[in-house]
Design goal:
single chain; about 700 residues; 5-stranded mixed sheet; 27 strands
Length: about 700
Amino acid sequence: MVRMAMSTPKYVGTSAPTRTAPELLRGQGQYADDIKLGSPLYVAFHRSPVAFGQITSLDIEDAGKSEAVLAVHTGAHVAHLGALAVNQVIPLLHPLDYPILAKSRVESVGQPIAAVLADSPAQAMDAAELIFTNLDENDPTPLHKVAADSWTKGDTSIEFASAAHVVEVTLQHPRLAPNPMEPRTISVAYHAETDTVTAWHSTQTPHRSRSELARILNIAPDRIRVIATHVGGAFGMKGSIYPEEVFAVWAAFSHKRNVKWTATRSEEFLSATHGRGVRSTGRLTVDQNGKFLALEAHIDAPVGAWLPNSGLITAWNAGRLLPSGYKVDALNIETKATQKRVGPTGIYRGAGRPEANCLMERLVDKAAKALGRDPIDLRMQNLLSLDQLPHATATGNLLDSGDYPRALTMLRDQTAYDDLKTERDRRRALGELVGVGVCFYVEPSGSGWESARVTMNADGAVQVDSGSSSQGHERETAFAQIAADVLDVDLKQITVRCGDTGTCPEGIGALASRSTAIGGSAVIKACEDIRARRDHGERLPLTSEVRYENEGQAWGYGAYLVMLSICADTGTPSLEKIACVDDTGRIINPDLVKGQIQGGFAQGLGEALMEQVEFDEDGQLLTGSFMDYAMPRACDVPHLDMHTFETPSPLNALGAKGVGEAGTIGAPPAILNAAIDALSPLGVTDLNMPLTAHALWQAMQEAKQGPSS
């Protein structure tokens, strides 16, 4: 049961005005590159032009003689530095190097080889262009299976041998560039009097940033303060420490100077972490009545030359989320992370959740087609029911709470689903290519701990300091609502700070849809402690600091519906209707929930319809700018009809579930299912994203030509 001690909430559950949006809209935000430092050194990197090469010579002489250049550094100068810690959620079979600057070889296009420190960004970049590297591209080192895991339940071979129907799906997810509005950036102020630094860092995890920097540089953590004031988007891309950022802090300590580095957009495409790119195959067997019997799945997730802290999360989630919220008696699931000679791959909004759900939802749709069943009816038959939750899965998860069939029932009712199918069939009879696609999804939020420190002063003013962070989430608003209700004070009396290791308690940060559920629960507990002490007569001011750990992951879930038409002449897809139903547990601020769903939906639409990072066979990036990499514009994102209901999670004090990744999880399979449904009269049974006009037109032509002889 939910343990949130709140009588009649005044603020929680309402759309209280956002706190940071007004100043951001007025252009008054403070981002890491906005920090003014006295006479800083600017960093520019000389990067590898090839995907692999042994460094036979490196000429930095001309760069070192350039105007206003203080120093040029190579891999030898930073070879003593440590490696980044990796979260080993699946067994690590082959650890990868973490070179700050390349040592004897390069293993991806864009890898930093040398770094220039100069008095201005232009002078640093000009000098970097004077560096010459001779690379021997012969005899590349072997690529490795970096990590792997598997889960089994029952004997799938028996079920497949006697099945009434077996359906198979192979999916290749496009590789995606997260592209936050603010690129990676770090401004490092060196304090000579204490031999310490303050780093304004565009990061999701300021405390992790500090601890990892300290460990890699082999110095005490209290010599580094990390501040993440405003962050212009992150989406998982800024959840780890990059070699370029480590170099900037090392350079500040080594030269005892202020240092700044901000990535160009080209550098973001080349050397920031990409997401997705997963290839998955699955087989599902069903009996003649539509019962799911067995599932086999194989996941192959790409990783680059080095592993970010969360680099194995995608492979882990893409396997362990199966079979979603469905009842399946026998399972055989294998996942692996495989090294590729491309840029680094890390977490991107959803991080394996979209990949798992998309595979399962394509299999379910294929099963419905094989059985001649309605896709929603077949899902309803096989979903875990209300009285079957909580449910322990074969992959070691606990699906905590909810009413899965209710999400589909609500979706059917709110969209007039049967009428949509009738309209689809009417238009098909007239020769139009129209499809309706649905999906169900699950979204686990993070586990673990988060911190909060709350102080209530004699005048009633309340200071909330959170170990979590915020980059557009409006955490400041939600946490203030929680504190105001528990302490029974006006919302205007609450001040919230986060993202500063100097003023806030140590915490994890904003990852995996975890911060409201766990960070908000920490705020509740600290406020409850203060309230209890007031009730027992303690005088203000009172301070309570809490390190709260949840009892397990809270699993959000929901359903999406898409009606889509395709131009028979050009293949251009048009999204005509999109609706979603989400159970995100206890809702603190409805407007913030809607914003998260809308933002995630826009990114899910991007994957489904247009976004894809492309490399040629030599590992050269072909989509290195917005001229080549398509991103959704405002006019590309249609209206989303949103509906919610609340089933509180019993596993955290707030009762909240994740919502930040819901749109990226639910939108792609619904859009994909709708597109395949639209082309099914032509005999199309499979498609891969992105569903560009060219890809759809080509599928139509191949279907018209029939199978090759």
